[in-house]
Amino acid sequence: MGDGTAYLAEHGWPSPPQRPVHAFTGSPGELLERARVDLADPEVPLEQSLLLLWGARIGSADLVGTQEQRLSVAERAGVRGGEIRRTLSRAGQLASGPEWYAACLYRSMLENLFEGFLGAVAFAVVKPEDIDDVDEELREGLPQAEDAVPSAVPAGVPEGHWWWRAPFARS
After folding, report:
1. Cα 97 to Cα 53, 61, 88, 138, 145, distances in angstroms
2. Residue 20 pLDDT class (50, 70, 90 cuts)
3. Residue 155, in any domain of the structure
4. Is residue 158 within 8 Å of residue 114, measured between CB atoms?
């Protein structure tokens, strides 16, 4: 192919993740503050801020940040509803393909935003049935992820993020 895809695939790249494919530099508090600042800039992709918030979440057993910081994140994220809805849609699209890790990551980034920052306001941004639809796609698609390996699941994933275990719950 002209874009190099076939060439790279022939040499084993990209390959399915064997360990977590992201690393975070900085403390959970620093990650939260970077995400908070980035959310104020519409030029910074939402996914970047959500990934930083996810890094803060899995890097700490407790809630990170002050009440003011968390409220600021909620306010700044809440006005980016269109991007949040597109990110949720992307998680659903990834669920039925070979990109199991990305599907789980997108869903966890969003769940972290909903649970840790937006709370009930999340349902003013996305419809509960849209979340349910994506979760159903994950339930159906992730058990088919043949390349999934448990060692790729990041440490610190909350128990309620069941989608990370779904690829390994094959009958």
Report:
1. 25, 32, 15, 10, 8
2. low
3. no
4. no
Following DSSP, what letter does each residue of the chain receive, concatenated? -TTSHHHHHHTT-S---SS-S----S-HHHHHHHHHHHHT-TTS-HHHHHHHHHHHHHT-SS--S-HHHHHHHHHHHHTTHHHHHHHHHHHHHHHTSS-HHHHHHHHHHHHHHIIIIIGGGHHHHS-HHHHHHHHHHHHHHGGG-TT--GGGSPTT--TT-GGGTGGG---
Q: Whole domain around residue 131: which residue ranges? A: 27-145
For the segment 22-67, what is each residue's pLDDT rounded down to a tens digit?
778 899 999 999 999 999 999 999 999 999 999 999 999 888 999 9
Task: Yes or no: say if 80 and 58 are a contact pair by the CB < 8 Å rule.
Answer: no
Q: How confident is the model at residue 2 (pLDDT cuts 50, 70, 90)?
A: very low
Domain contains 13 = no
> Distance between CA 143 and CA 96 in Å, rounded?
10
Angle among Cα 160, 164, 167 to the nearest 5 degrees reads: 130
